Amino acid sequence: MFPLIGFIIIALLNKRLSRSLAGLIACGALLTSFVVAVIMFMNVPAEGTEVHIADWITAGSFKASFAFLIDPLSCLFLLIITGVGFLIHVYSVGYMHDDDNQNIFFAYLNLFIFFMLMLVMGSSYILMFVGWEGVGLCSYLLIGFWFKNKSYNDAAKKAFIMNRIGDLGFLLGMLLIFKTFGTTDYKTVFAQSNGFFSGNAVITTITLLLFVGAMGKSAQIPLYTWLPDAMAGPTPVSALIHAATMVTAGIYMVARSGVLYALAPTSMFVVGLTGAITLVFAATIALTQNDIKKVLAYSTVSQLGYMFLALGVGAFSSSVFHVMTHAFFKALLFLAAGSVIHGLGGEQDIRKMGGLRSKMPITWITFLIGTLAISGIPPFSGFFSKDDILAHAYATNKFFWFMGLIGAMMTAFYMFRLYFLVFTGGFRGGDKVHAHESPKVMTIPLVILAILSAIGGFVGIPEFLGGSNRLDKFLEPVFSASPIKMLSEMGGSSSVSEMSLMIVAVIAAVLFISWAYMKYDKNKELPLADNQKMPAVQSLLYHKYYVDEIYSAVITKPLDKISGFLESIVESRFIDSIVNKTGTFVNWAGGLLRQLQTGNVDFYIFVMVVGVVLMIFFKMM
């Protein structure tokens, strides 16, 4: 309720509130929500509890309650959404300080958080769908926030339309759930699913349809192209929606539906395969991008692929673990990138940066911590979550593990390529640009996120390293109903082999970091300019495999031509003709009837008498 109240106040009093007061209200709403989330987290029962608010829909045998499900999974997401969301709100106070529409920006942010909390807390698929559509709306509003720029509007529309494609799959899956179980309530659906055998065609269809929705919201192949374009929005939007919250909604939906997916091995394989292909595919594109936010955008697509890979091998807790660590280090990286852009007066091309380590020391050290975390270097947070995923993948499907390892190596390379080009060497931005550190309102959130990125993985230290993987145990009651084996029950995953896998992954990452160092720091190589001829493979990666162009040629342009034909022929010559001729006929008939209105009383009496005579005549017949 707090973000919703914040949205209402700021939206209604937009012009009357000062910028500082609007920022204070928005941040205060999130801070209050975070405090409540912490209290809930500290007291949540392992089995969870359902909070009934009111009866919502009653239609025949269907009944939908407005109720919230509070359990370890939803509580963890509440902490991520409100905690990271609060830091991004604080950062936005400084980043959006000079924007004339800052107040409405904070209103949109608060509304987004409200819908995201609704998505996570809802006790049924129909309530999840309400939050699902709400965050889609807010994403459209925030991506196209600077609406005077046509390309930004196009990016917003692209995100909205591609998400609608995925949402259709979610909607069909939800309708099939109702047809099969007679309800959309989680507890009832999951309880009744125990009567279905593994591989049941209906359950498989439901889970595949739900996954289509997850592919759209969480930017997986082939519905991923909207997310890189969504970088058109202000940088805090990139950090909030496309790093820490909205794009993880698909992960949450599949994890929440773990009981159903456990009964659908085919769907599990499709989820894992899609994640494995996406994580490598997006990582290859990130190798050659020169826009600082585009590199991080494709990195997000790749990291989401890791999460789906984990879900596909039944490592639900590992996937959620990576959601948490990713929220820390990716929000940090986006906000640090925003600090760089702010300090350079809006410049985003990494070829025009360099040497910022001395000019922006806080941004530099925090960005380095985030880069180490996402690269899987111990003891930073990404190391533990990524190792957990790779260990499960190795025990389940060696091909998935290999794809994950390849992705990890490329991640280390392109992230340190970005780091070296931005922060080391000499400054390449020209004499007119004077880089400077961002204000404290922007750097303090960076420091907090850097600390979380450094130590956040300690909640998932594996037992063979002396830990107890507390996060796995915390989430165990949620996933215990899913007949998926734990890592300890899988063959070939002893502490010795897991240690070996960990060492292999770290060595591979270090080797690729060293390669990036030699190439971009020691040898001072720079990416080619846009007008320079590139090798064929590099050009293919730089142009993102021409996927957008293929979509445009195969889907968009044919639809435009069909629409043009329908508009010029069917609409103009047929439909418009019917409408226009109808109007013409009415005018003609009205002209004839108007002649009867002569104003002559004698004529009116004559017509009345004739009418009476005719009535008597027809009555007598």
Structural overview:
The chain is mostly helical. The protein is built from 25 helices and 2 strands. Strands 1-2 form a two-stranded antiparallel ribbon. Helix 14 crosses helix 18, helix 18 runs antiparallel to helix 19 and helix 18 packs across helix 22. The longest helix has 48 residues.
Pattern of helices and strands: HHEEHHHHHHHHHHHHHHHHHHHHHHH
Question: What is the beta-strand fraction?
Answer: under 5%
Q: Strand sequence of the main sheet, in spatial order?
A: 1-2
Indicate the percent of residues in helices. over 70%
Shape: globular
Number of strands: 2
The low-confidence runs, each spanning 5 or more residues with pLDDT under 50, are 485-493
Given helix and strand content, the structural type is mainly alpha
Features of the shown structure:
single chain; 2 strands; globular; 621 residues
Structure described in brief:
By secondary structure, this protein is mostly helical. It has helices at residues 2-12, 19-43, 72-95, 102-121, 125-143, 150-181, 186-192, 201-217, 226-229, 235-244, 249-256, 258-262, 265-286, 292-312, 316-343, 356-359, 361-374, 381-396, 398-423, 440-455, 470-479, 495-522, 536-542, 547-594, 601-620; strands at 49-59, 62-70. The model is unreliable at 485-493 (pLDDT under 50).
Topology record:
Blueprint: H1 2-12, H2 19-43, E1 49-59, E2 62-70, H3 72-95, H4 102-121, H5 125-143, H6 150-181, H7 186-192, H8 201-217, H9 226-229, H10 235-244, H11 249-256, H12 258-262, H13 265-286, H14 292-312, H15 316-343, H16 356-359, H17 361-374, H18 381-396, H19 398-423, H20 440-455, H21 470-479, H22 495-522, H23 536-542, H24 547-594, H25 601-620
Antiparallel strand pairs: 1-2
